[in-house]
Design a protein that fits this description.
Strand content: 5-15%
Structural class: alpha+beta
Helix content: 25-40%
Oligomer: single chain
Strand order of the largest sheet: 1-4
Shape: globular
Order of helices and strands: HEHEEEHHH
Number of strands: 4
Number of helices: 5
Length: about 140
């Protein structure tokens, strides 16, 4: 499992800890960290959009170092977002008992042309759609 691998990696180095966005409360500011580390922007879907990967990237963990690391600032890019929010559509479909859309994933996310070659396959998209609906109490 990825979490275990990250923890093992961190354990191999003194002063390094593995952090995960799902551990909390309090929850760690992964989105803010991402904006400082990469050229990402907020999108109408409430996800960060990346100029290469579009909406098809995620921050599953981070390594915390005791010492400050000096790194180059990320290049800034204009916001490539072309999408629209889909939460209302998902809630409407779930309320109507329409679960067949889950395997396709968010249609607004798939409509965005940025990074489309990185789109999730149907099983992975379905997993994320179920988690999204659960988080919204649907």
């Amino acid at each position: 499992m990825l979490n275990e691998a990250a923890r093992n990696l961190a354990a191999d180095f003194p002063g390094v800890r593995a952090l995960f966005p799902f551990e909390g409360p309090p929850y760690l500011p992964f989105q803010r960290w991402a904006r400082r580390a990469e050229p990402v922007h907020p999108s109408p879907l409430r996800q960060l959009i990346h100029p290469e990967f579009g909406l098809w990237h995620a921050y599953r963990g981070a390594l915390l170092f005791r010492e400050k690391l000096h790194r180059p600032r990320p290049q800034r890019h204009p916001n490539p977002c072309q999408g629209t929010a889909c939460i209302g559509y998902l809630e409407e479909q779930a309320g109507n008992g329409q679960k067949d859309f889950l395997g396709r994933g968010c249609l607004s996310r798939r409509a965005c042309p940025v990074g489309l070659k990185y789109a999730y396959r149907p099983a992975q998209a379905g997993f994320h759609m179920q988690a999204l609906l659960a988080a919204h109490g649907c």
